């Protein structure tokens, strides 16, 4: 389609799952895309797969988003290779603990908030000057349906995703002065490796989640990519500070 021709995007945690689906969608629409992940072999594999599909304006970088030096190197490499930055999709997240919230540890909370919330904010802050140089830009933060309705088994993770809903709102007043829009998506249960404990197999956990979804199925990763493409594009030029729920009809309200 080419609607993102000459646009440059960074997509974090994009070697697999939702992040990879978003990177592929943006590349298919003409964007230059910087893929990133914590593991070198995963980055190489994702870049190779995208280039094998004919998306040659794709590069990759090892980046642990909680590491400031990693973020700086990723941003610098993006600018060196592609000339600037127009889009940021902040997708990286962790969930090191699965179970009742009162069983969670201080170490788990520190890690979750360091990666899911703090790193998202600072990545936005560090990318913004480069967007200003391009005359503006667009940011999408990947939150979660759990940010609206916390999972009983992923409590701390859910709270971190609620924080991202607030972060989007908090960023709007300042970013609009720079011609930068910021929005979010809130996926429900997506069939990825990250969330397989919630959907994989026929068991009580997956059955309980499935019973709450009006569409009666779990989503595929590519079903998030179209919403991100829309929010980044000029089709959403009057949309900022919003969160699009991709949850199969599950009610989402704080």
TrEMBL record:
The residues that cross the membrane are none
From what superkingdom does this record's organism come?
A: Eukaryota
* InterPro entries found in the cross-reference section: NAD(P)-bd_dom_sf, SDR_fam
- GO MF entries: carbonyl reductase (NADPH) activity
Q: Name one Pfam family in it.
A: adh_short_C2
Which family would the database say this protein is a member of? Belongs to the short-chain dehydrogenases/reductases (SDR) family.
Q: What is this protein called?
A: Dehydrogenase/reductase SDR family member 4
Taxonomic lineage is: Eukaryota, Metazoa, Spiralia, Lophotrochozoa, Mollusca
């Amino acid at each position: 389609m080419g609607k993102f021709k000459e646009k440059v995007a960074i997509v974090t945690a994009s070697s697999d799952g939702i992040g990879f689906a978003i990177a592929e969608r943006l590349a298919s629409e003409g964007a230059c895309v910087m893929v990133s992940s914590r593991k070198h072999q995963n980055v190489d594999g994702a870049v190779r797969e995208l280039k094998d599909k004919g998306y040659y304006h794709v590069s990759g970088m090892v980046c642990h988003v909680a590491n400031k030096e990693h973020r700086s190197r990723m941003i610098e490499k993006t600018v060196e290779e592609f000339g600037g930055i127009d889009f940021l999709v902040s997708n990286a997240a962790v969930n090191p603990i699965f179970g009742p919230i009162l069983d969670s540890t201080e170490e788990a909370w520190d890690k979750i908030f360091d990666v899911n919330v703090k790193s998202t904010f600072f990545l936005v802050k560090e990318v913004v000057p480069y967007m200003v140089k391009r005359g503006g830009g667009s940011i999408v933060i990947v939150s979660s349906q759990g940010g609206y309705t916390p999972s009983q088994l992923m409590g701390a993770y859910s709270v971190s995703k609620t924080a991202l809903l607030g972060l989007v709102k908090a960023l709007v007043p300042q970013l609009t002065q720079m011609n930068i829009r910021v929005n979010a998506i809130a996926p429900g249960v997506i069939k990825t490796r990250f969330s397989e404990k919630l959907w994989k197999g026929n068991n009580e956990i997956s059955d309980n989640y499935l019973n709450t979804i009006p569409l009666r199925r779990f989503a595929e990763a590519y079903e998030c990519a179209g919403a991100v493409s829309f929010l980044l594009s000029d089709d959403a030029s009057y949309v900022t500070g919003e969160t699009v729920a991709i949850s199969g009809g599950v009610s989402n309200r704080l």
